[in-house]
Amino acid sequence: MELIAKILTAFVALEHLYILWLEMFAWETKGKKVFKSALPKEMFKPTKGLAANQGLYNGFLAAGLVWSFLIEDEKWQTNIALFFLGCVAVAGIYGGISATKRIFFVQAIPAILAIIAVLLK
Q1: Upper half-sphere CA count for residue 57 (Cβ side, 13 Å)
Q2: Contact assessment for residue 13 and residue 66, using Cβ atoms and an 8 Å cutoff
Q3: pTM to 2 decimal places
Q4: Closest CA to 16 of 76, 78, 92
Q5: Inter-axis angle of helices 74-98 and 2-25, to 10 degrees?
Q6: Domain tally for the chain?
Q7: Do the Cβ atoms of 22 and 31 come closer than 8 Å?
Q8: Tens digits of per-residue pLDDT, 16-33?
């Protein structure tokens, strides 16, 4: 179960690194394709700064999850991983309620599965 926990945690970290890239550096190109149902095309340029700020926060989540892999003490590694996975899960649940249900499935479900795996390891 420990390997599954690490794989799921790494997946969530990689996903948030992708979101960082998408929102900070590719908002007006790839972002238009990914978020086409959420925003009209003309809104991407004026919201570029807002998206970059959101991307930065996703980067912090990814950094915390990567950090959890570098901690040698097992108890602290677990606590840090659970904290950051919990942040992702809450953000995904909130996004699923307030923005689009797709966010719940893309962000919250992988984080929740990783939390379960970390708790069962």
Answers
A1: 8
A2: yes
A3: 0.93
A4: 92
A5: 50
A6: 1
A7: yes
A8: 999 999 999 999 999 989
- Closest C-alpha to 8, from 90, 104, 88, 93: 88
Give residue-wise pLDDT tens across range 75-115. 999 999 999 999 999 999 999 999 889 999 999 999 999 99
Instruction: Specify the amino acid at residue 34.
Output: V
Burial of 98: CB neighbours in 10 Å, binned 0-12, 13-18, 19+:
exposed
Residue whose pair of structure tokens reads 């699923």 in the numeric block: 96
Residues of the domain holding 83:
2-120
- Give the length of the chain: 121
- Predicted confidence band of residue 37 (pLDDT cuts 50, 70, 90): confident
